[in-house]
Amino acid sequence: MTSHSTPTPSRSIRRGLRLAAALGTAALATGCATVSNPTPDDPWERYNRSMFAFNDTVDQAFLKPIATGYDQLMPDPAQTCVHNIFNNVADVWSAINSFLQARGHDFFNTLGRVLFNSTMGLGGCIDVASMNGATRIPNDFGVTLGVWGLESGPYVVLPFLGSSSVRDATSTLGTFAAGVSPVTPVFHINDVPLRNSLLGLYIVDTRANLLDADRLVNDVALDRYSFIRDAYIQRRKAQVDSRRNGGELPDYSDGDDLPDYSDDADESVTPATGK
Predict the structure, then answer these.
(1) CA 111 – CA 120 distance, rounded (Å)
(2) What pLDDT does 268 receive?
(3) Cβ atoms of 97 and 140 closer than 8 Å
(4) What's the CA angle centered on 60, arms 55 and 63, to 5 degrees?
(5) Are the beta carbons of 145 and 171 closer than 8 angstroms?
């Protein structure tokens, strides 16, 4: 009598890791093109393009299909509720960084948002603060270091995390190590299945909310890598400069002030990343 063994979770995990390693090796091999004249902000462009190709391969194989299914199957109100709850938790960290930047107005506004949404908004599920004119003020320790005078340093693409800089990578790793990141409350949950489920939901929710931006980049960018790099550098610079100068970031919510790349979409040139 022949017996068929059921694959154990550890065996499935090992298979997944081997598959990810194979995909990463292929992506790194295709991305290691020589860059003769890297831009001043991106002196490690050869490595960065390789890591970008690796991240993109993993994303296309795993994250994007899951996020697309989540976006299609999960009702919009439920998606909004999940996203608002994670934003509400992240607002606590934003408020702390506003305090560290000596921006008292932003600190009290963000703290008020958290209290208002946590109570009247049913734990953050409903963003009642935004409905009443108190919009979010995203903030993080990388911006705080920039306000304190630390330059961003070269652009760098991190494994799985994507676009960053020396300053932002240091802040990301430092805050995770210190246990003060936006997802820190999740790590304090003792129920391991629940904790892992929430971390997975956070990753899927984050990726699902980038699907529209991903389609835009695919439509207008001749080189996905350069487009994403330049957008990241400009956005981070604007965030730091606005807080150094005591100003506010421009509001792009209505889309009227966004640059028009419609002409580029007609170009037939294939981006360097193969998309």
Answers:
(1) 14
(2) 38
(3) yes
(4) 85
(5) yes
Q: Name the burial class of residue 230, with classes exposed (0-12), middle (13-18) and buried (19+) by CB atoms within 10 angstroms of its CB.
A: middle
Three-state DSSP class for residue 162: strand
The two three-digit tokens of residue 149, written as one number: 């005078």
Distance (Å, whole) CA 75 – CA 65? 17
State the DSSP code for 165: E
Helices (H), 148-191: 166-178, 184-187
* pLDDT recorded at residue 22: 52
Q: Name residue 145's amino acid.
A: L
Residue 41, CB half-sphere, CA atoms under 13 Å: how many? 17
**Dist. CA 204–CA 83, nearest whole Å:** 10
What CA–CA distance (Å, rounded) separates 108 from 131?
18
CA distance 33 to 26: 13
Task: Calculate helix-pair angle for 64-73, 192-208, nearest 10 degrees.
Answer: 90
Tokens of 45: 């462009």
* Structure tokens belonging to residue 134: 């108190």
| Closest C-alpha among 182, 84, 174, 156 to residue 126 | 84
Mean pLDDT per 10-residue section of the chain, whose length is 275 residues:
46 50 50 66 96 97 97 96 96 96 96 96 96 94 96 97 97 88 88 95 96 94 96 96 72 43 41 42
* Backbone CA torsion sign across 186, 85, 105, 240: positive
In Å, the largest CA–CA distance within the chain is: 77
pTM higher than the cut 0.70: yes
Identify the pLDDT of residue 177.
85
